[in-house]
Every structure is written in C-alpha cells, then in structure tokens.
Design a protein that fits this description.
Blueprint: E1 3-6, H1 16-31, E2 35-40, H2 50-62, E3 69-72, H3 77-89, E4 93-96, H4 100-112, H5 128-136, E5 142-145, E6 154-157, E7 161-164, E8 174-176, H6 185-194, E9 199-203, H7 207-219, E10 226-230, E11 233-234, H8 249-254, H9 259-268, H10 282-287, E12 298-299, H11 302-315, H12 318-321, H13 329-335, H14 342-353, H15 363-378, H16 385-397, H17 401-413, H18 421-428, H19 430-438
Parallel strand pairs: 1-2, 2-3, 9-10, 11-12
Antiparallel strand pairs: 4-5, 5-8, 6-7
Bound molecules: glutamic acid (GLU).
Length: 439
C-alpha cells in the first residue's frame, strides 16, 4: 500500500509551491488507493502555531485534498529521544560542544586553506571523562549524526533518476540542539519509518537532505522510501520570485479561482502533459504519473491560472455549482460561457432577476427600445422570442448589427457585453423585459 505524506511546518500559510507538493503526494496516494498523511513539522515551538496548522487543514479541505490522518511531531518527542538513544548506542550519533563562534572559526580556517568547510569531527575524540567535565561545567551537548560512506547514499529518484550524495563532502548534520530541541532531519526519518511512508515527494531543495536521510534510515535498520524531488516553481518570467512565496489558497479564493483549476494547473506544470480544463479530479488521477515530471523548473503563471479557471467554468455542469449559484440550470448554461468566477455568475443572476437601473440611452435609442417593447408584447414569449423580436425590429426600423442589438442589450441587461441574448431574454421573463424596455 502506497503511503505518502505532506509535511509542512505550521509556521506560515501554505504557498503555491507547498500546494503543489501536497497535490503530488495526494495524487500519488489517491491514484494507488493508498493513504495520504498530513504531518505537521512543528518541532520549532517558537514559530509553530495552531492557527497556521488550522489554516493548512482548511486549505487542504478547500482543495479537496483532506488527509486520511494527521500526525504532529510535537507529540512524538519521546519517540525521537528513544531512537536517539539507540543510534547513540550504535555509534551513529555523537555529542559535540563547539559554540557557533568556534564552528565559524573552523570553517574560516578551512576555507582560507582552500578546503571545503566540513566539520572536523573533533568531538568524536572526546572521552567519557571529557563529557563528564563539560557536564559539570554546565555545558550541554548538541548532537550530530555521523555520516558514513559505508551506509547507503545513492537512490533512484522518482523524478531525477539515479542520484547520490558524497557523505565525505558534507558536515555531520546537527540533529538536536543543545537546548534539546530537534532539527527537522532525524524526526522526519523516524516519522517516515513509524508511519510506513512508502513515497516522499518534495522539492529539489531537499536533494542533499535525502542523501543524509538515507543514511539515517539505514542507521535505524529501516528500508528507505522512494524519493522524488520536483524541480522548483518559478514565476511567469522564469525567475525564482518572492511573489510565489506569498500566493496561496486565500489569494486563489479571493480571486474566484476554483480548487479544480489550481489542481489542474499544478498537476501538469513541469510535466510532459498539457494543462487541460478538467472539471473533476478523475482525469488528473487517470493521467498522473510522477515520472512525467521533468527536471527543468516549471513556470507558474497567474494569468494562465485565471484563463484556465475561466475555461473550466465554461464547461462546468450545473450540478457542480448548484449550491453556489443563484441560477437555474438554464440560467447557468446561459451565463457560464461568459464568466471568470462564480461571483460573476451571481452578478448575472442579479441582472436576470433585476431590478436594474434605467440604462443611459440616447433619445433615438430610447424611442427604439420603446418600439421594441410594443413589438415584444405582441409576440409569443417562447425560446425563439429574441430571434423573432430582432427580425421584426430589423424589418420595421431598418436597423441592423450593433445599432439593432446594443440598445436592446443595454436596456435588458444594463451591460454592453454578456451572454447570448437569445438565452437571456427568456430568463429575464416577459413582464420584466417589457418593464426594462418600456423604462
Ligand atoms: N517540513 C519540511 C519542509 O516543509 C518537510 C520536508 C519533507 O517533506 O521531508 O520542507
């Protein structure tokens, strides 16, 4: 059974990059009939808040990607402690005492000699007597994980193919601070093991972490999951933009973007498949294959999302929006081709229902629409009434094209553009239409 997880830190709102990561993991799990977990990486107690955690859950609900289960790292600290003890006994982790200044100095010396600034593992030489002395002085250790070329450091990435890191080129990562707080690295591995995570899809900024984490899985005696690293998103201009870090679900929602539009775009960005205006998850799930993602950065273009949103709405069946629009099915079918958002559909509903302010018409157009009122009153008010009315007016007034249609549209809808009047007029209804034309 495939188990994936989305592991945000509840230290802020989700941005579009996070949403994409969540979506890829959700698609992977749903397609395989597996499980999709929400794991809140909240070991940073100072910056994590329940409000952000709730906003993340709400965003996932809005996107239609609720998790099957939720886990919180802050509830698992005893477990991390236990594993640390086991890893310490097996020599995979060790205590160190260097201060940030001392470490900085070591790095500078190495760089000065043209060497990579890799931690020299001086702490490995400490004896039990040294530890006892430090403890007596009130100095607390931080913990490092000992990277080991003999442990696995290669993997076949679901997206990038054969991948590896060189453990000798990296400093042994600090996994726990002197104040007892945890860094992300080891808890994430412990969670993935305990939660049976089979597939981890995340941004390519985590590639080096993966190499390190493979070693941690092995140190725990656990098999490691499949890893896939998606290339990062850029803005429409192809540059890594700050703006992307601030656009998320609340902006989408404010702009009338539908959840399915967000999914339809983000599921295909950076893949070999084209973005299509789908109206449900099914076609996205059917076509999804993590291997379709390429290694090049993918452009997230807000204008493209808006266009996609509109074309999705143009095809959305009434049943999918019935609870959100104040329109009948006929009304929805009449207006959906002209809207960019559900809010616009409801503006058309208000136009249909009226009342409308009297339109500003030139005197001769006023006479013309009054004539239209008289004519309309004499016609059978059926689905063909708009055609019959305009044909008759054309014959009697000699008007055609814009001169014929525009005053009628303005009088009947108050707008110079909009849905097909042949569909709108029956929706407005006979009495209301006569009133608007006679006004
Ligand atoms: N909390 C980490 C992040 O948001 C999770 C990374 C991961 O998926 O392992 O970057």
């Amino acid at each position: 059974m495939i188990v994936t997880r989305f592991a945000p830190s509840p230290t802020g709102r989700l941005h579009v990059g996070n949403v994409r990561t969540a979506l890829l993991n959700w698609l992977l799990a749903r397609k395989a009939g597996g499980k999709f977990l929400l794991r809140l990486d909240d070991t940073d107690v100072a910056r994590s808040t329940e409000e952000y955690a709730q906003s993340i859950r709400d965003d996932l609900v809005w996107l239609g990607m609720s998790a099957d289960a939720e886990e919180k790292q802050s509830a698992r600290l005893a477990r991390y402690e236990e594993v640390l003890g086991q890893l310490a006994a097996a020599g995979h982790v060790y205590r160190a005492y260097e201060t940030p200044d001392e470490l900085d100095l070591k790095r500078k010396v190495l760089l000065g000699r043209g060497l990579p600034p890799v931690y020299d593992r001086a702490a490995l030489a400490l004896t039990e007597a040294d530890h006892a002395r430090f403890e007596a002085e009130g100095r607390k250790p931080h913990w490092r994980f000992r990277l080991d070329p003999a442990l696995p450091h290669e993997w076949t990435d679901l997206i990038r193919g054969p991948s590896k890191i060189d453990p000798a080129s990296l400093s042994d990562p600090v996994i726990r601070r002197a104040d007892g707080s945890w860094l992300y690295m080891l808890p994430s591995v412990i969670d993935d093991v305990d939660m049976g995570v089979t597939d981890v899809v995340r941004g390519e900024d985590h590639v080096t972490n993966t190499g390190i984490q493979l070693q941690m899985f092995a140190a725990m005696g656990a098999a490691f999951p499949h890893f896939g690293h998606a290339a990062l998103l850029t803005g429409a201009d192809g540059a890594l933009s700050k703006r992307l870090g601030s656009i998320g679900v609340s902006e989408f929602r404010d702009r009338g973007i539908e959840p399915i539009a967000v999914k339809a775009l983000l599921a295909r960005l950076g893949t070999s498949l084209s973005v299509e205006p789908v109206t449900s998850d099914a076609p996205l799930l059917d076509a999804f294959d993590i291997g379709h993602l390429g290694r090049a950065t993918a452009r997230f273009d807000e204008a493209e999302l808006e266009r996609l949103n509109a074309s999705i709405l143009h095809q959305t069946p009434y049943a999918a929006v019935a609870d959100r629009v104040s329109l009948s099915e006929t009304g929805w079918n009449a207006v959906r081709g002209n809207i960019h958002s559900i809010a616009e559909a409801n503006q058309w509903a208000a136009v249909i229902d009226g009342p409308l302010p009297a339109p500003a018409l030139e005197a001769e157009d006023k006479t013309f629409v009054n004539e239209a009122a008289t004519m309309l009153a004499a016609l059978p008010f059926d689905d063909g009434v708009w055609g019959a009315l305009t044909e008759a007016l054309k014959a009697t007034t000699g008007r055609k094209g814009k001169a014929l249609f525009m005053p009628l549209r303005l009088a009947l809808t108050g707008q110079p553009h909009g849905p097909d009047m042949a569909a709108m007029l029956p929706l407005i209804g006979r009495d209301e239409a006569l009133k608007r034309l006679g006004a």
